[in-house]
Amino acid sequence: MTEETQSATGPDPVSRDAELIARVLAGERELFHELIRPYEKSVYLAAFSILQNQQDAEDAAQEAVLKALKNLGDFRAESKFSTWLISIAINEARARLRHARVLRFESVDEPAKDDDGSFVPALIRDWREVPSQALERKELRELLQSAIGGLPEMYREVLLLRDVEEMNIADTAAALGVSEGVVKTRLLRARLMMQKILAPQLASKSSRGGLFGLFRSKAGGSWF
């Protein structure tokens, strides 16, 4: 759901987040669940775009949530809370990927990370269902997931944040730690790569049932 839709159906997300953050920091730590709930899927997708493994992405996302709770007092609202949270997830996933590459054949046991043991956020739920109308049909969803998975990491990240999560250019740039110009360039290249990968498959399937037309109508031009 886009921010425009959210604002039309409920409180402004920025105001909502600011109020919940203040209350959490004042001692109502159980409200942290409510604070992060709208961003669960985004956090998971950000981690998955890097790790490309469901379990690893879930672990990274959960660790990112814990880190967000620990460091909530450091949030200065220079960006949106959602952007700050997603940037934590991206950094956590990147760190795990680097660690896995260095210690690919070793097993490392790490102690569970918690703050003071008094409160642990509940496991994030329902983040495996990608919230996009473009992925409604199983066959199309599988084609898209396969194509996205085949993109280089830096293009996969920006495509998921912009075209699946529908984050704007500024928030995407802030989450990835790059300039808006870099986001635009990477997004254009990612879409061209997707077109090159998907066009032959969708064209062949269109003759068997119009899947290419469905893709174009559902995607609304986002991919091409």
**CATH homologous superfamily of the largest domain - what is it?**
RNA polymerase sigma factor, region 2, helix turn helix motif
- Give the total of domains: 2
Give the C-alpha Rg: 19 Å
Mean pLDDT: 75
Count of separate DSSP helical elements: 11
Give me the secondary-structure category.
Answer: mainly alpha
Number of strands: 0
Report the major sheet. none
What does it look like?
By secondary structure, this protein is mainly α. It has two domains: 3-102, RNA polymerase sigma factor, region 2, helix turn helix motif (Rna Polymerase Sigma Factor, Chain: A, Orthogonal Bundle); 133-219, Winged helix-like DNA-binding domain superfamily/Winged helix DNA-binding domain (Arc Repressor Mutant, subunit A). Helices cover 64% and strands 0% of the residues. It has eleven helices and no strands. The protein has helices at 3-9, 13-25, 32-36, 40-51, 54-70, 81-102, 138-149, 153-164, 169-176, 180-206, 211-219. Helix 6 runs parallel beside helix 9 (169-176), helix 9 crosses helix 10 (180-206) and helix 10 (180-206) packs antiparallel against helix 11 (211-219). The two termini are 21 Å apart. 30% of the residues are buried.
